[in-house]
Write a structure and sequence with these properties.
The complex is a heterotrimer. Chain A is 76% helix and 0% strand. Chain A is built from 15 helices and no strands. In chain A, helix 3 crosses helix 11. The longest helix of chain A has 31 residues, at 59-89. Chain A is globular, with a radius of gyration of 23 Å. Chain B is α+β, with helices and mostly antiparallel strands. Chain B has 2 domains: 4-230, Rossmann fold, CATH 3.40.50; 236-357, Beta Barrel (OB fold (Dihydrolipoamide Acetyltransferase, E2P)), CATH 2.40.50.100. Helices cover 24% and strands 37% of the residues of chain B. In chain B, the strands form 4 sheets. In chain B, strands 6-7-8-3-9-10 form a 6-stranded mixed sheet, with helices on both faces. In chain B, strands 13-12-11-14-20 form a 5-stranded antiparallel sheet. Chain C has helices at residues 3-37, 51-54, 58-91, 97-105, 112-125, 133-158, 161-169, 174-203, 206-215, 220-231, 235-259, and strands at 38-40, 46-48. Chain C folds into 2 domains: 3-48; 56-259, MetI-like (MetI-like fold, Orthogonal Bundle), CATH 1.10.3720. Chain C is built from 11 helices and 2 strands; from the N terminus they run H-E-E-H-H-H-H-H-H-H-H-H-H. Chain C starts with a helix and ends in an 11-residue tail after the last helix. Classes of the chains: A mainly alpha, B alpha+beta, C mainly alpha. At the B-C interface, strand 6 and helix 2 of B face helix 7 and helix 8 of C.
Chain lengths: 276, 358, 270
């Protein structure tokens, strides 16, 4: 029977939406990244200049972005692993309350940035405490650790989710077998559970990293005038839409996508057999 | 009442042949069972009959009408599933009315038909319950009412009792038989439970590895299993591999040899001396006999009791005859005498056994 | 230490850990709320007052309305597009199924900032008619469709096919079966996607920031962002920042009250 005639109309709208408004724009940003300034809109001048200049002008921004997003991802894994493990293995009462709270960071980076901004600003609730301890609030705010803290709060749910999925996929009998073979709790965890949940750790870090590459409000509001403005997301926004250098903005945008893809590819390759 | 005829049905999954040239027939108002172990293709066959799975080959007729390419909703069938398939978002009334609404019946008539169907399965008064509030047995009764309400041409039951506990199962299988008799519907019933099949069926198709191995009434299949598989699958039996020693055409008695013993079997046709045969002897056909009575049995042997196992109404003995161990069932009050008789020498005798091709 | 005591200790520590992390997660929202409603009097005493909410400008509420309309349209489009696709992906075997799934997942692997710029360029050059309100709707629909797809896939996978088979055998055709049996049974699962998209699109910031220039449409989060930059941490800004967060929270809590976490698990929850 004509299965195809059932399937095709069902998937066509989804394919159309993604092709027209995701893949076509991606193709356009690639083209524009090879044009000078806003020449694409009048008579395009094609050149590699943007890519050549990019690494000279924006090296700091690349470094900052990858440092912030990468570290936030690592912190997410460190905090998120016990969280997922406890939620799945230890806790039965109120488990759904904890699950529900994990949705809140999805409300957006802007609110996280704003909440933390007030937290240690002079006159805020914590600043008095810090003053009493002899720490200047201004040293804590407007710093890399604060931006990283905000970012890791923002993407913690993704880390917990990815780790949780791989923990759920582990057959408990492996762990029971290890215990029966004489391995202690800790040994069982280190030798069986942790290696088996490695795919979740990797995908969790990647997702966290990927989302944080695109954050803007957190680094700009929390990172301070030196670190915070020199991140890729801010440069993409300002070069293209504030100073109308669409070519350069697109080039940075393409580079961010390319780097994300390379990271994904490398990790998937390295973990072949683990990541299925 | 509708006649069902399926000819040469084939279903493949990759290189695996799930249903291999299955042909079966059910006469008007007949209850036919497809019996076989799990994975033998019986459920697949039934789902093909329902139109839930398209066959790769073969034809299906309801009376004279070829329904092979019709979807399930155009076949007018009543399918009862193994798992409870009552719609969880509708109450009992809505569930039973569903099929009637699909047939665009007027409301007043639907009401009447639902009531009648629920009465037939003894579930009146449950109209407002949700499926989650019913026990397994009740749910299956409503399920049967739901398919009966639509007055289907053919009923197809796919192991409807396999998820129900033993006691209730016994009760429900006779219910199904009663309902089938009352409604005089043609019913094709799939099960892996031979007791269930024997209790309710007019005729049985025994299926194995995607093929029909034998077809017949429950009695025929029990008495004359055609293959070693069926002999083993239906009830308990002693299998002995033998070779032919002699065949006396006048008396029609074959003499076979196994483990140094000569076993005599009445057999209507000549047997190939070069081939080896299985014989199947049912434990209930072998008796512990008085040594003086040996004359009245075709076969009688001396043996030692190796073990006596108490299984309720039966005490099953394992009797060693020259190294050949036979299962023998003993009944009645005398069965208790054997419980402490390990190592005792006795004489057994039997007349009937079946010769099977290997 | 006895085994029992050991177990009790480990369970207590487990709860403490979860509570600690959840406190950190709740920190930004609680602080914003604190700033919005807690007023320190000149004499040093503190009271709760909702006066800050009355200081929110009319323009902000207009932007909230724009935001809500964009979100509702996004949800409608995504459900209409993703539910049939999820149905096909779960129910039918066809070639390139994995490839199609990856194709539809593409958005997930592209950082929002790059995607936003790409969209802006395509609006400038190809889809000029989308420069405006509808540009937002289309952008959000494409960006969030994945969430509707994933939750619908989970819902369809969890649906025992026996109900649909029973409906077919009882005489219902494909369409009737879908609308009378399949859809009511997977409804709560699809609602999970609706809730997620609603919440995320109400609060979307980065794509909106890029789109707002060319489309000349400003959403509520953008207003909050510019107020933060210009007015700092004044109570009315804090009040603005809590509005959509509290709306989102209400949506999530209401959903969980009705359906629990069952349908969100496996999609975005463990």
């Amino acid at each position: 029977m004509g299965r195809r005639w059932v399937t095709l109309p069902l998937v066509t709208p989804a394919i159309a939406l993604q092709s027209l408004f995701f893949f076509l724009p991606l193709f356009m940003i690639l083209i524009v990244s090879f044009t000078i300034r806003d020449s694409f809109f009048f008579s395009p001048i094609y050149t590699f200049d943007n890519y050549v200049k990019m690494f000279r002008i924006y090296r700091i921004d690349f470094q900052n972005t990858f440092f912030l997003a990468g570290t936030a991802g690592v912190i997410d894994i460190i905090i998120g692993y016990p969280f997922a493990y406890i939620l799945l293995r230890k806790v039965t009462r109120f488990a759904d309350v904890f699950r529900a709270i994990l949705i809140i960071p999805l409300f957006g980076e802007l609110y996280i940035a704003y909440g933390l901004l007030y937290l240690i600003l002079p006159g805020g609730p914590v600043s008095r405490l810090l003053d009493a301890l002899g720490i200047s609030p201004l040293d804590v705010l407007y710093s890399a650790p604060m931006a990283i803290f905000g970012m890791s709060l923002y993407t913690l749910p993704f880390a917990v989710y990815n780790i949780g999925i791989s923990l759920q996929g582990i057959d408990r009998s492996y762990e029971e077998a290890a215990r029966c073979l004489g391995a202690s709790r800790l040994k069982t965890f280190m030798r069986v559970t942790l290696p088996l949940s490695l795919p979740g750790i990797i995908t969790g870090w990647l997702t966290s990293f990927g989302w944080n590459l695109g954050t803007l409000a957190i680094p700009v509001l929390l990172g301070g005038p030196i670190l915070g403005t020199r991140v890729l997301s801010n440069q993409i926004w300002t070069t293209s839409l504030v100073t109308s250098d669409f070519g350069m903005g697109a080039a940075i945008g393409v580079m961010v996508v390319a780097i994300t893809m390379v990271v994904f590819y490398v990790v998937v390759k390295l973990s072949r057999g683990v990541l299925v | 009442m509708t006649r069902v005829e399926a000819i040469d049905l084939v279903k493949r999954y990759g290189s695996f042949v799930a249903v291999d040239r299955v042909t079966l027939r059910a006469r008007e108002g007949e209850l036919v069972t497809i019996l076989g172990p799990s994975g033998c293709g019986k459920s697949t066959t039934l789902r093909i009959l329902a139109g839930l799975i398209p066959p790769d080959g073969g034809r299906i007729f309801f009376d004279e009408k070829d329904v092979t390419s019709l979807p399930p909703d155009k076949r007018n069938i009543g399918f009862v599933f193994q798992r409870v398939a009552l719609f969880p978002h509708m109450n009992v009334y809505k569930n039973v009315a569903f099929g009637l609404e699909m047939r665009k019946m007027p409301k007043s008539m639907i009401k009447e038909k639902v009531k009648e169907a629920l009465r037939l399965v003894h579930m009146e008064g449950y109209e407002d319950r949700m499926p989650s509030q019913l026990s397994g047995g009740q749910a299956q009764r409503v399920e049967i009412a739901r398919v009966l309400a639509t007055d289907p041409a053919v009923l197809l039951f796919d192991e409807p009792l396999s998820n129900i506990d033993a006691k209730l199962k016994d009760e429900l299988k006779y219910e199904i038989r009663r309902i089938q008799r009352e409604t005089r519907k043609t019913l094709i019933y799939v099960t892996h439970d031979q007791a269930e099949a024997f209790a309710i069926s007019d005729r049985i198709y025994v299926m194995n590895n995607g093929r029909i191995e034998q077809e017949g009434t429950p009695l025929e299949i029990y008495m004359n299993p055609r293959t070693p598989f069926i002999a083993a699958f239906i009830g308990t039996t002693n299998f002995i591999e033998t070779s032919i020693k002699d065949y006396d055409e006048k008396s029609g008695i074959a003499t076979l040899e196994a483990a140094g013993l000569e076993i005599k079997v009445r057999h209507p046709s000549i047997l190939d001396k070069r081939k080896r045969y299985f014989i199947s002897i049912r434990p209930e056909d072998i008796k512990v006999i008085n040594p003086n009575d040996q004359e009245s049995y075709l076969n009688s042997f001396k043996g030692t009791i190796e073990d006596a196992i108490f299984i309720g109404t039966i005490v099953r003995l394992n009797i060693n005859i020259n190294g050949l161990v036979l299962k023998v069932d003993t009944y009645g009050s005398e069965r208790f005498n054997f419980l402490d008789s390990k190592g005792k020498e006795i004489v057994i005798g039997f007349n009937s056994c079946t010769i099977l091709n290997m | 230490m006895s085994r029992r005591m050991h177990e009790r200790l480990s369970s207590t520590l487990s709860y403490l850990y979860l509570i600690l992390i959840c406190t950190a997660i709740l920190l930004p929202l609680s602080i914003t709320l604190y700033r919005a409603v807690v007023v320190t009097r000149p004499d040093g005493s503190m009271t709760i007052s909702f006066q800050s909410y009355t200081m929110i400008s009319e323009a902000f509420w207009d932007k909230v309305l724009v935001n809500v309309s964009i979100s509702l349209l996004t949800v409608a489009i995504d459900v209409a597009v993703a539910v049939p696709a999820a149905y096909a992906l779960v129910k039918y075997e066809f070639k390139a199924k994995r490839l199609l799934f990856t194709y539809l997942n593409g958005v997930w692997y592209v950082p929002g900032i790059s995607y936003g710029l790409a969209l802006v360029l395509s609006y400038y050059f190809v889809y000029k008619f989308l420069l405006g309100f509808w540009g937002f709707v289309v952008a959000y629909s494409t960006g969030f469709m994945l969430l509707a797809l994933l939750t619908a896939i989970v819902a369809f996978r969890n649906l025992d096919p026996v109900y649909e088979e029973a409906a077919r055998c009882l005489g219902a055709g494909r369409l009737k079966t879908f609308f009378k049996v399949t859809l009511p049974l997977v409804g709560p699962g699809i609602t999970a996607g609706v809730v997620l998209i609603l919440v995320l699109s109400l609060n979307e910031f980065i794509t909106a920031l890029l789109l707002s220039g060319p489309t000349r449409v400003k959403t509520a989060p953008l207003q909050v962002f510019s107020d933060i930059r210009h007015a700092g941490i004044q109570p009315f800004v804090a009040a603005e920042a809590t509005v959509l967060q509290l709306v989102s929270l209400a949506i999530v809590v209401l959903y969980l009250k009705f359906f629990g976490t069952k349908y969100l698990r496996g999609a975005i929850m463990i």
